[in-house]
């Protein structure tokens, strides 16, 4: 859209504006407020239900004010209905008519109607479903039924849909008058406090829901308002061109650098030409986008280790912080655009920057034009920034600008877009910068040249420290997109290999930079569900009585078997390890897995720690992973063969004798059909292929080597067998401690099923899942539920909880010795 904006001064010049039309937006903050409002409604209902005495007491205390004051309040109470029903709506409607906002006026009136409907529905549901205590809390003294004045909800909805309270003085005044009138009504006993809160929240929910559904006119600065804001900052624009608009005709005011900056800035970017023919950059940051950006940064700071979110509670603070980082970087010697001015108008903060002359984004520079001098210049800016104690955290092909050949004013390199930067930064954030720069350069000039230039400019230590952070989660979206086109894993792995070639002692294994992810959230939810199911039938006194009656010798035997599991795992790793490691170190590492099981899913911790132990011994990561996979395969083979041998040799008349029953055959058939049907889906086959084939390819070469060394194979299988036997022995000892007997084959099957469930559910150490599977299995085998719970808890106590302190000591020892 091209428009002309007339200046407010007397000069006849007009401003050329190329921008998008003013748009309606759905604010994230409206959804957040709606959710909080719903929670508020629930909280009020709970308080009214369970704190009836308190709510009645407060209401009566307010209503029992002195007779003199009540007589003084007669006139305000008489005006109460007129204020709410006439004055407030009239003021708000008049304000919107003066501002020429007919659509917002219709939306506000529609919200008022919706507020009445929501309140009527709420009142009907409360009358039908509410308890006597709840209804009593909503009924004022002397009334026959609950009081939820619908006109109060209508006014609450109208004020909510009319706009945000801080943006308009009339709205702020109207809300204050509304609360004052409601307070007077409560003082006179016309309505109870829970009714007041509930009615206002009903209207608030209706207004927010409608406002989000239809969208709202953002209080952004466009057109004349945008020009007025720039004049407040001391600039006289004659041209404003939006940088991110798609158009068939290139605007002469734009260049590649401005377009690139629009992709990284958190706001609208404009190329501005002033009356003095100065070409500047304007970033317009809008309040309706501030919440989404703040939530995103807060999520990143919570999820990523070493990242600290700036405490930005307002649009102004966020913009001032960005300007501060940019100014500090320039003072520190970094070549970046100078902040020339700031202003705020409506719900938009305007930041005016110096515009890089004759520059283009590094992301569009052909690889053949990137010489060593340019690479050195990029690293020089990164080093200067870090010496000043500043981090950028968004280094990519769009935020690094380079000069155009042949242009006399072209700067060698500029760093721009400091929205995520921070002063007085942490060492971790600076490591992130180096990792981002390495990935950006590797895509453009290749991993080897990128690493060579980094070593040449920064030295070995910063590059080595950045190597573990070469992973997609810390890279900017633009770099991730480029890496995806070049097969991200291969490029980053090549960078690590190049660093390792230059510094053989460098630690290049991926560092865990996330505190939690969706898997952790799912883990917590599943753990709570499992704990609820188990504890629902758990009686503390029964457990204490059962433990008191348990045979202590069998409990001690269970703990001894638990310790033997670590010996079995150590024997397997000792046999399959491609390098010689002292057995005592391997055994110590296996005990350390008990400690890390507090944070990682069952089966994942031991593999990760064993791989770490091998890579610290200079074993190549692929070979270390193959060794871990071989141990897993060995354990699976031993499990299957052990069950077959037990079935044939034990002659058990346990649970397996009943197989294959009709029900089991049907269940197996259903499972087979479901798996077959899923494998007919292309993306499921692709997923299975990605999960299975790499493991086979990693394991097979190592397996062929082990087969050629029979003693290693025998020792490894013996270790896996000892591991399985020890776990089954601990389980049977826990059963025996409570006087329960179960066939060996049944105990083995039940243990292996529970272990498989624990490995499938991504909870730390299989928490919740293992307990549920064992307890359910024991109860299904005829063990009383209380005893089944006790057996399960004792088994988990000796195999999971008691080894944790031993694991902590082992972990600390290995860390001090540099083994992990």
Strand content: 5-15%
Radius of gyration: 35 Å
Going across the biggest sheet, name each strand in turn. Answer: 1-2-5-6-7-9-8
Q: Report the uncertain regions.
A: 6-12, 68-76, 652-665
Summarize the main sheet: 7 strands, mixed
Structural class: alpha+beta
Measured as a percent range, the helix fraction is 55-70%
Count every helix, treating DSSP H or I runs of 4 or more residues as helices: 32
Shape: flat
Q: How many strands in all?
A: 14
Q: What are the key terms here?
A:
single chain; alpha+beta; Transferase(Phosphotransferase), domain 1; 7-stranded mixed sheet; 3-stranded antiparallel sheet; flat
Structure notes:
The protein is an alpha+beta fold. The protein has four domains: 2-22 and 219-354, no CATH class; 25-214, no CATH class; 361-502, Transferase(Phosphotransferase), domain 1 (Orthogonal Bundle); 518-816, no CATH class. The protein contains 32 helices and 14 strands. Helix 18 packs across helix 19 (488-502), helix 22 (552-576) packs across helix 31 (785-801) and helix 28 (710-737) crosses helix 31 (785-801). The chain is flat and about 90 Å long.
């Amino acid at each position: 859209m091209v428009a002309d904006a007339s200046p407010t001064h007397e000069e006849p010049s007009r401003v050329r504006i190329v921008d998008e039309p003013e748009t309606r937006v759905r604010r994230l903050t409206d959804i957040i407020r709606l959710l909080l409002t719903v929670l508020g409604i629930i909280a009020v209902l709970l308080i009214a239900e369970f704190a009836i005495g308190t709510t009645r007491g407060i209401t009566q205390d307010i209503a029992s004010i002195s007779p003199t004051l009540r007589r003084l309040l007669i006139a305000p109470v008489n005006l109460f209905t007129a204020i709410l029903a006439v004055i407030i709506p009239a003021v708000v409607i008049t304000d919107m008519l003066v501002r020429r906002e007919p659509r917002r006026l219709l939306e506000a009136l529609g919200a008022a109607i919706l507020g009445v409907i929501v309140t009527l529905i709420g009142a009907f549901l409360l009358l039908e479903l509410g308890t006597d205590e709840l209804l009593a809390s909503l009924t004022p003294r002397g009334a026959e039924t609950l009081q939820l004045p619908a006109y109060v909800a209508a006014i609450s909805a109208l004020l909510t849909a009319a706009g945000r309270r801080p943006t308009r003085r009339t709205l702020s005044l109207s809300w204050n008058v509304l609360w004052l009138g409601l307070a007077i009504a409560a003082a006179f006993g016309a309505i109870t406090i829970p009714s007041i809160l509930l009615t206002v929240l009903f209207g608030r929910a209706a207004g927010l829901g409608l406002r989000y559904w239809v969208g709202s006119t953002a209080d952004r600065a466009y057109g004349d308002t945008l020009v007025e804001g720039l004049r407040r900052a001391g600039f006289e624009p004659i041209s404003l061109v939006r940088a991110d608009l798609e158009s068939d005709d290139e605007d002469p005011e734009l260049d590649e650098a401005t377009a690139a900056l629009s992709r990284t800035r958190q706001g609208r970017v404009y190329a501005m030409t002033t009356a003095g023919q100065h070409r500047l950059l304007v970033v317009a940051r809008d309040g309706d986008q501030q919440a989404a950006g703040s939530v995103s940064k807060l999520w990143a700071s919570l999820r990523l280790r070493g990242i600290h979110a700036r405490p930005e509670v307002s649009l102004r603070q966020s913009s001032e912080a960005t300007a501060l980082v940019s100014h500090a970087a320039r003072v520190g010697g970094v070549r970046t655009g100078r902040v020339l001015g700031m202003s705020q108008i409506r719900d938009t903060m305007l930041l005016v920057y110096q515009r890089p002359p004759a520059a283009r984004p590094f992301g569009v520079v052909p690889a053949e034009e990137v010489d060593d001098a340019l690479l050195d210049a990029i690293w020089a800016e990164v080093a200067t920034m870090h010496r000043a104690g500043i981090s950028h955290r968004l280094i990519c092909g769009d935020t690094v600008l380079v000069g155009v050949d042949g242009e006399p004013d072209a700067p060698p390199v500029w760093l721009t877009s400091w929205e995520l930067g921070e002063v007085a930064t942490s060492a971790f954030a600076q490591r992130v910068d180096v990792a981002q720069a390495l990935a950006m350069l590797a895509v453009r000039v290749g991993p080897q040249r990128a690493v060579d230039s980094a070593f040449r400019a920064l030295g070995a230590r910063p590059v080595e420290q950045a190597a573990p952070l070469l992973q997609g989660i810390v890279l900017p979206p633009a770099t991730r997109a480029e890496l995806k086109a070049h097969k991200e894993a291969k490029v980053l792995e090549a960078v690590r290999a190049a660093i390792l070639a230059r510094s053989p002692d460098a630690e290049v294994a991926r560092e865990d930079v996330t505190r939690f992810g969706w898997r952790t959230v799912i883990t917590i939810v599943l753990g709570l569900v499992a704990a609820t199911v188990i504890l629902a039938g758990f009686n503390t006194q029964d457990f204490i009585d059962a433990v008191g009656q348990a045979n202590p010798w069998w409990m001690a035997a269970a703990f001894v078997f638990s310790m033997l599991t670590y010996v079995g795992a150590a024997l397997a790793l000792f046999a399959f390890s491609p390098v010689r490691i002292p057995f005592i170190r391997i055994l110590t590492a296996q005990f350390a897995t008990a400690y890390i099981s507090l944070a990682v899913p069952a089966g994942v911790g031991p593999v990760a720690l064993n791989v770490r132990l091998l890579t610290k011994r200079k074993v190549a990561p692929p070979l270390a992973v193959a060794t871990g996979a071989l141990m897993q395969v060995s354990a699976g083979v031993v499990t299957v063969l052990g069950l077959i041998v037990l079935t044939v040799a034990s002659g058990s008349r346990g649970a397996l004798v009943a197989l294959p029953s009709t029900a089991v055959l049907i269940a197996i058939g259903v499972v087979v059909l479901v798996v077959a049907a899923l494998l007919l889906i292309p993306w499921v086959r692709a997923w299975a292929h990605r999960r299975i084939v790499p493991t086979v390819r990693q394991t097979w070469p190592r397996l062929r080597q082990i087969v050629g060394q029979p003693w290693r194979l025998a020792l490894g299988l013996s270790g896996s067998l000892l591991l399985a036997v020890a776990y089954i022995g601990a389980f049977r000892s826990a059963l025996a401690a409570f006087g329960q007997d179960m066939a060996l084959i049944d105990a083995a099957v039940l243990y292996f099923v529970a272990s498989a469930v624990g490995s499938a559910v991504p909870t730390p150490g299989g928490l919740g899942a293992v307990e549920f599977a064992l307890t359910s299995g024991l109860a299904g085998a005829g063990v009383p539920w209380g005893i089944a719970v006790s057996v399960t808890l004792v088994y988990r106590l000796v195999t999971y909880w008691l080894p944790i302190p031993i694991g902590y000591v082992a972990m600390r020892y290995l860390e001090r010795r540099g083994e992990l």
